[in-house]
Structures are given as structure tokens and as C-alpha cells.
Amino acid sequence: MKTRRDFIKISALGIGGTVALGGASWVLGGPMANLLGLPDETAELKRFPTYCEVCFWKCAGWAYVKPDGGIQKIIGNADDPQCNGRLCPRGTGGVGMYSDPDRLKKPLIRVIKDGTQSYREASWDEALDYVSKKMQEIATKHGPESIALFNHGSSGHYFTHLLNAFGTNNIAAPSFAQCRGPRDTGFEATFGESVGSPEATDIRDTRCLVLIGSHIGENMHNGQVQEMSDAIDKGAVIITVDPRLSTAASKSKYWLPIKPSTDIALLLSWIHVLLYDELYNKEYVEKYAEGLNELKEHVKDYTPEWAYGITTIKPELIRLTAREMANAAPSAMIHPGRHTTWYGDDVQRSRAIAILNALLGSWGNRGGIFFKEGIKLPDFPHPEFPKPAWSWQDTLNGRYPLAKEAVTNTIIEASIPETGKEHLIKGWIISGTNLVVSVPLKEQLMKAIHSLDLLVVVDTMPMEITGYADVVLPECTYLERYDDIRASAHREPTLALRMPAVAPMHETKPAWWIAKQIGERLGLAAYFNYKDYEEVLEWQLNQIGQSLDELKKVGIKRLPRTKGPLYIEPGSDYTFKTASGKIQLYSKEFADAGFDAMPTYQPHAEPQEGFYRLIYGRAPMHTFSRTANNPNLVALMPENAIWVNPEVANIWGIKKNQYVWLKNQDGVVSNFPVKVRLTERIRWDSVYIVHGFGHHHKPLHLAYGRGANDTELVTNVVIDPIMGGTGMRGNFVTFLKDDPKKEVES
Ligand SMILES: Nc1nc2c(c(=O)[nH]1)N[C@H]1C(S)=C(S)[C@@H](COP(=O)(O)OP(=O)(O)OC[C@H]3O[C@@H](n4cnc5c(=O)[nH]c(N)nc54)[C@H](O)[C@@H]3O)O[C@H]1N2
Ligand SMILES: Nc1nc2c(c(=O)[nH]1)N[C@H]1C(S)=C(S)[C@@H](COP(=O)(O)OP(=O)(O)OC[C@H]3O[C@@H](n4cnc5c(=O)[nH]c(N)nc54)[C@H](O)[C@@H]3O)O[C@H]1N2
Ligand code: SF4
Ligand SMILES: [Mo]
């Protein structure tokens, strides 16, 4: 069926993978030498500071450039406390983002000829004129608020600035409602603030670390992996709760192979043991917390025996592990997690985690959660932003009252005329996020996409989302551009610089330039009153007594703390950032908003016979879509596999390495087959795949058709009523051994 916005293969233009690039090739050997740590030839190489964009840990590093201009390798900056001179495999392989022959090369504009839609190459002027003219038209008709931005990563800031100047703050990222939103909301309700990114988790000095799902080691957030390894060396007790024997579980003293979706029951029973066996940190709780009596009454019946029937974790083990935490307290921590949109009651699970941390006295103590500190760089001077007539809060329509950031799903909903009504969104800019793979509810997403008057995608790669754009704007990779100074808060304030190591390949441009160009065309030049981004960085650094020249030489600068110690000093008082200044074991804020003031356990949907719960996670060598086509990383892991318990495989007559298709509870079949990994490391009631595979866009020559895509099988989404997070683990799959001959939109 032809629609208003047909999915277009960028390769149809012949500009996909067929163009030969200077230096780049399909041979996977070259960059592998770096991964294998072959002889250091850095002596004749020039090095440029950068920080990694392969994930959001943003490790600082050096890009080494060869005399012929190519990038030889990227290594970690030894002064960076976020990586200590060591990058993860993805960061090392980041060169592949630069050298990938499938990269976007020129601006593209959608055209319709004889009823067929395709892209044609355009000059930057033409593409930028098109975008700004369309934005202006939409604003004249519907107001500037009807333009929205979806973003992830460094480029988001420039387009946020552009849209704020234009008069809208409908700006959303899947890293909230599809990721850390529930955690942040649960922690804010309890402690008055969340743990930030990188998380203020004092794993290095912890004596007991509890991981609820958080699969550090596969989730390769660098500093955490290094600190966990140090903590293990120092004898810390690790307790991992995961239906799968994750890498972290395999390094743990205790692995609790919980029945998925029942974590709140386990957490409540741990709270019960801490309170009724009087193991909690009394002094800390008396001094800093409110609502102890209510909590004690609330968990009265939540005994380990009660939890056993739900979680399948034996009562003795629940008691023993609670004791381990109490013995180590306050140097004990239940990790807050990060990707927490699991079952739709995720804020309450995060609340239970926060409450346990409070009972142990973790917040503000060594080995728990430290007080992070960063440095704020002033904004480059610009006129005040206009006040939008309405904003993303209005798209909530009274739902999700505690959402502190825009919810992707309601912005999508507001872009469909039947559901958008008086707050209708007509244009999207998308930068650095492959919405088709990162947001579930595909039907709603497609309806929205087909209703828009303008869809602009800024990306480095021809990912699925680019196929729906009216205009595709190719950004250069992080190795070819300046970006904002990394000034994230952690144990000490740091400043890290990213500058171009090489000139942008093809006709690609940095996002700051793209945003400025559109801004100038929209009459907003006063908001972009600089020649280039070097000028912005220089000005910002000068305001805080630092210099760009120095950062160019050192890459990263550590600054002394000025806002007090890392932990609560003995004998001193601490005021939490909640309304009352105390930790909220009982949340009045939740009660007032009509939610449970303390977490309760609710059973979740169970699989029908012959179906297994689909759970998903990360692999050390990939970051979702970001790396799917990266030649260096595809060489390390070309496809995902489905983890199946051997007992289940036996029932189905499925063999090791056999390819199967997956069919979910709503009859949706995976686009491609996926290889079976038989392993005792997963419970029989669940199957597991790594997210980010199964790409169906042919211009991704390496990623196309490799493995299964979990997102397409997530058709049952349970939305968290508190902040709008999309619980994605209530989906069940069965196996198809024969090719269902599915037609794949590619
Ligand atoms: N290598 C790599 N590292 C990454 C990323 C990446 O793409 N690649 N992405 C980064 C990002 S953005 C994020 S948000 C984080 C995500 O990483 P985490 O926050 O660690 O993600 P989780 O969803 O907690 O972890 C998935 C784990 O949960 C387990 N699990 C599934 N269901 C249940 C359940 O019901 N109960 C329990 N207890 N466990 C369950 C799975 O078996 C799996 O081991 O990783 C970050 N790090
Ligand atoms: N089913 C399912 N859904 C999930 C998850 C899951 O595990 N399973 N994980 C969730 C989580 S934790 C998160 S954080 C979100 C992440 O979801 P996304 O934000 O979509 O994550 P990425 O895959 O990092 O986004 C990648 C896009 O950014 C582009 N890109 C890479 N570098 C650059 C650059 O320098 N500039 C520009 N302009 N673009 C660039 C890539 O080519 C790609 O199109 O997904 C969530 N959705
Ligand atoms: S953890 Fe790895 S991918 Fe993430 S920023 Fe650091 S080196 Fe890059
Ligand atoms: Mo995430």
C-alpha cells in the first residue's frame, strides 16, 4: 500500500554501500589490529582529544591520526576517572563509525515521481531551506509548539536550543520513557534526587553490591565494570537477582534466579527481614527518614515465605542475603539500575530499591551512593527564549503526573490527529535516535509518522528511521567534530574536550552547524551569535577560568570539589532534597497523586502454554542500533542468538545453533530467523536475546537480516501510570522451525 510517507531504501539511489571510500574497505582485518593490541606505532601519529559517543558513559580518549590522514586508533585518556585510560571494546571499535562505507554522505530530499517515492541528493542549502521553510509554514498554521524533537546523544543539545528559540519545548528522548525514567522517579520520590549519569554509585568501595537485573559486564558502562571488578578483588559480596546467569551473576557470591516480573515481592521481603529482624541501620533511619512505622506495618505480611511462593527464591536464601547486606551496611548498595522500563510498575520497583538503600544507610556513605559534583558551564549569551503557548506537559492529558521529562509516547500520540486534538504536533526533528527500534507501539508510531507534515532525520547512518524522513541530514561522526564540553558530575568535577581528529568525510556536517544554519534561516540568528563552536567552547571555558588551548593539550581536566565532602561527615547533618528534607519511606507525594505511598506487589501476565517470556539485554561489543553496522564490532559479534534452556529445546526438538523464527502472543513473527543458544544459564520459563539486532534496512549492509529484533515482538506494553514508562517485558514468544516466508519491509 502506498502511504503519504513510504519507507524508502536509501540505497535505491545507488549511494548506499556501493561507493568506494578513500581508505575504507569491507576487510575486517585492519582495525582489528587495534583491538588485539598490536605494536604501538603512536610515535609518528598526531593525537586529538575526544570523548566516546558509542554509548553515554562518554569515556574520554585520544584519537590517533596517521600521517596519511586516516584514524589509526582510539585509546582511553589515563586522566579520565570515568575510564582510567581503558575503553571498552565498543569505544576501541568506535573508529568503525567513521570508516563505515554505509555512512550517510549527502543531504537527501524525498521526491515523488510517477507515484513512486524516492530520495534525491540535495545540496545543504537546498535541504536547509526546505526544512526551515516547512517549519515556518507549520508554525504559521499551528504555532511553533507543533514542532517536536526526539533526540539521544550529543546532537540533542543543539536542536533543543534551536527549538527553544523557535518557541517549543516538545522535546523527548527514549532514554527517559524507555529507559531510566522509572528509576529517576522512584529515587527522586525517596531521596529528593536521582543518581545521575554516570551514576553516583560507590561500587569501588562497596562491601555488598546487589544487582537487580543490572547486568554490569554485559552492560559495559566502563567505570562501573572496572569498579565492580575492583570490589570483587577486595572481597565485596555480590548478590545478583536475574532469571539468567548473567556475566555479573557468574561473578557473584549469590545468584538468585528469580521468576521474572516478581522482583517487587523479593524486595518487600528483604525490607520485611531488615525491619522485623532489626537489621536495618537504626541510627541513620531515625536521623534521616520519615515513615518508618507506616513501612513496618505495610510489610508485616511480606515474609520470605510469602515471597518464595511468588519469586521461587527460597526463604533461607532471602534471609541470608538480607543479612549479608546488613553486615556490610552502610557500605552496601542495591544498584539503582538504569534501563528500568520492565513491567509497568517500575517506579514502584525503583521505590522499593530506594527504600532498601535507605534502610541500609547507603545514600551519603562510603560504598553506597556518594554526593556527586560537577561544574556548570554558562550558556553562550543569547536572547531569552519565547514562552511556548503549550508544552509536552499538555500532551500528558492529566496522565503520568510525576513525569519530570517529556514522554516519547505522548508526543507520538499528540502527532496523530485523532489523539492530538488541540495540542497537535505536525513536524518532527529526530537526531541520534532510531525510534523505529527504540520505541515500542509500532502501530502508533507509524500512524504518527504518516500524519506529519514534516519529518527531518539527522543521523550518521541510514538506520530504519531515515527511511521515513522527508529530509535526511547527514551528521559527521564524533571523531570529525567539536561538541559541547563533557562536564558530567561524579566524584570530582571534570571537563573533557571533543575536537575533530579528522575532517568530516563526504558532505557531512556537525549538528551544531546544522542547527545554526536552520536557526539563521528562521530569523533566529541572535540565538546563534558565533562563528563556530570553537568560539562557544572558548568563551564558556574562559568564564570558569579555563582555556580551550589547555584542554586541547590534556583532553581532560579534573577540578577540585568545592561543594563539600563525598560522604556525610561523622557527626554532621545532611538535608535531603525532598520537601521535608528527610528520606521518604512513605511517599506523601505519591499518595496525594493517587498512587501507593509504599510499593506493593501485583502479579503480571503469565505466558500461555508453549510460550516463554521474552527478556532482553546488552552485549559487551554492541550499543543498540548505534553499532549494528560498525565493521569492527560486527566482526566481534555479527548476530544475536536466542538463549533457550535445554529442557525447553528438548520439548521442541530444537538443536544447538539451529535457526528459528519467533512468534509472539499477538501472532507477530520476527522478520528474520535467530540462532539458538542452548544454555542452562536461563530459566526454562524465559528466553533471552540481545537488543539491537535484526535490522531490516538493506542499506545497512552488515547489519541487515542478522538475528532477531526484540522491539518488533514487543506488542504488549504496560505503561507506568506514574511517569509513562513503557514496560516491555510482558511479551511471550514461541518457536517456528519452518520459514514463515514473511514479507519484510526493507
Ligand atoms: N555493552 C553495552 N552496554 C550498555 C548499553 C549497550 O547498548 N551496550 N546500553 C546502556 C544503556 S542506555 C543502558 S540503559 C544500560 C542497560 O543495562 P541495565 O540497566 O543493566 O539493564 P537491565 O534491563 O537491568 O538488564 C537486563 C538484565 O535484566 C535481566 N532481567 C530480565 N527480566 C528480569 C526480571 O524480571 N527481573 C530481574 N531481576 N532481572 C531481569 C536480564 O536477564 C538481563 O540480564 O546499559 C548500558 N550499557
Ligand atoms: N525493545 C527494546 N527497546 C529499547 C531497549 C531495549 O533494550 N529493548 N533499550 C532502551 C534504552 S535503555 C534506550 S537508552 C533507548 C535507546 O534508543 P536510541 O536513542 O534510539 O538509541 P541508539 O540506538 O543509541 O540511537 C541510535 C541512533 O543514533 C544514530 N547516531 C549514532 N551516532 C550519532 C551521531 O553522532 N549523530 C547523530 N545525529 N546520530 C547518531 C545511530 O545511527 C542510530 O540511528 O532504547 C530503548 N528501547
Ligand atoms: S563505555 Fe565504551 S562505548 Fe561507552 S563511552 Fe566508554 S568506551 Fe565508549
Ligand atoms: Mo538506556
CATH architecture of the largest domain: 3-Layer(aba) Sandwich
Total helix count?
26
Give me the secondary-structure category. alpha/beta
Main sheet properties: 7 strands, mixed
- At the fourth level of CATH, the homologous superfamily of the largest domain is Dimethylsulfoxide Reductase, domain 2
Nearest-integer average pLDDT: 94
Number of discrete domains: 4
Oligomer: single chain
Q: How many runs of DSSP E, i.e. beta strands? A: 26
What is the CATH T-level topology of the largest domain? Answer: Dimethylsulfoxide Reductase, domain 2
Distance between the termini: 14 Å
Portion in beta strands: 15-25%
Description:
The chain has 746 residues and is an alpha/beta fold. It starts with 28 loop residues before the first helix and ends in a 10-residue tail after the last strand. The protein folds into four domains: 22-102 and 481-507 and 544-561, N-terminal domain of TfIIb (Single Sheet); 123-170 and 388-475 and 510-529, 3-Layer(aba) Sandwich (Rossmann fold); 178-371 and 577-592, Dimethylsulfoxide Reductase, domain 2, CATH 3.40.228.10; 612-745, Barwin-like endoglucanases. The site of one ligand MGD has 33 residues, from strand 19.
Short characterization:
The protein has 746 residues and is of the alpha/beta class. Helices cover 30% and strands 15% of the residues. Strand 8, helix 7 (222-233) and strand 9 (237-241) form a beta-alpha-beta unit.
What is the secondary structure topology, with strand pairs?
Blueprint: H1 29-35, E1 46-51, E2 60-65, E3 71-76, H2 89-92, H3 95-99, E4 108-113, E5 116-121, H4 124-142, E6 147-151, H5 156-166, E7 171-172, H6 174-191, E8 208-212, H7 222-233, E9 237-241, H8 247-250, E10 254-256, H9 263-276, H10 282-288, E11 289-290, H11 292-298, H12 304-311, H13 315-328, E12 332-334, H14 346-360, H15 392-395, H16 408-413, H17 417-420, E13 427-431, H18 435-438, H19 442-451, E14 454-459, E15 471-474, E16 494-496, H20 511-521, H21 533-543, H22 548-554, E17 556-558, E18 583-584, H23 588-592, E19 612-617, H24 631-636, E20 641-644, H25 646-652, E21 659-664, E22 674-678, E23 686-690, H26 710-713, E24 718-719, E25 726-727, E26 732-736
Parallel strand pairs: 6-7, 6-13, 8-9, 8-12, 9-10, 11-18, 13-14, 14-15, 19-23, 20-22
Antiparallel strand pairs: 1-2, 2-3, 4-5, 4-15, 16-17, 19-26, 21-22, 21-26, 24-25
Helix pairs in contact: 4-20, 5-20, 6-14, 9-12, 9-13, 9-14, 12-13
The site of molybdenum atom has 4 residues, from helix 6.
